[in-house]
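Budget justification, computational time. The allocation requested in the original proposal was used primarily to generate structure tokens for proteins on the priority list. As evidence of use, we reproduce two of the resulting records. The first is shown immediately below.
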Amino acid sequence: MMPSCRKPYEPPAIKGNNHFLAVDGIIYTGLGVASTINLSRSVNLDESGEHIPELNAQIAIQSSGGDSYNLIDSAGTGIYVSPALSLDSIHQYRLAITTSDGNKFQSDFVSTKQGPPIDSLSWELVNDPVTNQQAADIYVDAHDPSNATRYYRWDFLETFKHFSVYDTNWGDSNGIIYPLPAGFSIHACWSTLPSTDILLGTSIALSQDVISHMQIANILQDDPILDVGCSFLIRQYPLSEQGYNYWLTVQKNSQSLGGLFDLQPAQVNGNLHCITNPAIPVLGFISASNIQEKRIYISNTSLPGWQSQHLDTATACKTVDIPVDPLNTLVFNYPDTAYGPYYFPDASDLIVAPKICMDCRYQGGTNMKPSFWPLND
């Protein structure tokens, strides 16, 4: 009888067209620094995994001194970038946004905060208690001698090297096979991804403004980003107490729910408002601060036994032996355009393979080596 009385409960709120504006970013002060603001729309609970960028918006940084600086979404992704600016920290700053539907939004004016540099970065090989696997944990240390910062936020960019399954010296264009230029390789690529967790720290309970051994990343064994090596650019921002409390609430709502003793969800109140219709919610908190950066590199050679599983070469990367045109061995007319020339085993045959298995760019990223990449990896 009991199962027959149970019915799914779907509150109207999770079915409504609640695509509220979400604003994420920081106004950077300092010399020659560009600010990046990400505009998107929130999604309902039954739309998990969907990303809705806010396109064709007008957005500007406004100063209390009367200046205004426009940001442009040149890539059409909802990521708006300012020119390189030198914003004076004596002024207050806010964002002004007009969305494509004509609604206008503003953040409160905020004072700029100047945070201390990162003292050091370190990493350790540990046993993860949740997965019972090895993990590489990254830690940050910082301190403010003036005891003025107290509230911190971090994020990072991870740049990792990856290889195609096969290494070829040949390409094809308009039905003709050609040798790849000397020094040009599509076997090795580098991809860059942003961190996704909200990383916060505070020294408010300490007599000194010190952040010691703060864990900001946990990379589990056999994560593909460490098949060769990964460079982590750690970025540190000072927050106001209001800004810290906002991000702490977002962190609890998004990362700390589901357990019996986890904190309950809370209303997220930022410092952005819709000025054309105050009843329209908007998500986000805008801060103005400098940015401190430091880079750390982890090589696979320091992680014995770490290696992810690559594509199955017997199936996904199956090769095919085809005859070549005896009058012109460089003619390429294989009917499956997903395949390309791999190598010539002899004068009468050509081995072809899926392009995704020979060109690392199909996995994402670029085949241009970053200037910061170590020589030995």
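The second record produced under the same allocation is shown here.
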Amino acid sequence: MTERVVIVAGETSGDNLAAGLIRALRVQRPGLEFEGVAGPAMIAEGCVAWAPSEALAVMGLFEVIPHLARMIRLRRDVVRRALAYAPRVFIGVDAPSFNLGLAAQLHTVGIATVQYVSPQVWAWRQGRVRTMAKTLDLVLCLLPFEKPFYEGRGLTAEFVGHPLADRLPLVPDRAAARLALGLPAHGEVVAILPGSRRGEVARLAQDFIAAAQILAARRPGIRFVAPMASSGVRVLFEAALAQAGGIAIDVIDGRSSQALTAADCVLVASGTATLETLLCKRAMVVAYRVGGPTAWIVRRLMRAPFFSHPNLLAGREVVPELMQAAVTPTALADALTRWLDDPALRCETEALFTTLHAQLQQGANERAAEAVLALLDRARR
């Protein structure tokens, strides 16, 4: 009998994670069929798309309000389609604001439910764990400290590692990356990653570009490369770049790992890109900015001392984090300057990042697939 899976992924990072999981599941159980909210990577693996992953790329508590009616309609449509499709399991990939509510609805009709990528409940709104325990059968964790957090809270969790850690080499080749991007073999290079969501880029692009202008004035000959996560964010970033004027930044489509590997240090928006930067062993300055009301609530509910992957994984401040009003061109440029002026500290940081990379290199796609198939087999019995 054909086994069906509904899988819903949010934005580019979720699309890539879900595609790797689909591929690994099909290797272990070729007869599985997949439908859901999918991006191009998932579609390439044979997932039938009910809606695009980009439809879930909304960040912030209050920032979602203009999109709320659309998101409610989308969730209602996904529930309707899922009930008609009759899957054995639902897998929500990231996008917890959308997927946890969806899981709750599908769980009530006996569909097994999985959340791939733990919501940051260990950082804020820890009360959500009680609801998750009632509506999720399994959480697949990317970070090693997440599984112990769930232990004793009535929720089955498995640490699977991170697929990016499996894909990227432990020892990056800066020379090869620079050659591939047409950058000089010598001289300073800074990578700029202003975010994968349009809202992030709209809030950060001007300050990131202005920081590059300050650095260019301080350090003649410095080069900048900015990999864009999608055509939509490229349009926004290039509009900000044209408005700023007087600064040369090589804007490229995708190829973020090459750009990070080519760089001496990185200016990056908080999110998955900070993990990718760590895995490319590059010193970074991390910026985070959301709408004022969201920031007010986050500050009061936040339980974790850090918000970037390097600091969370290391358990201490390894890279500077700038949030909200602290994100200014001068502050960003000063923090980057400190990295550029201290090659010994960069070398020490790269060694730490290599250790952290090894901890995350677990064969994530295969481990996640094994955990999902074990759940499917239990549900069948």
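A brief technical remark on that second record: DSSP finds 17 helices and 13 strands in the chain.
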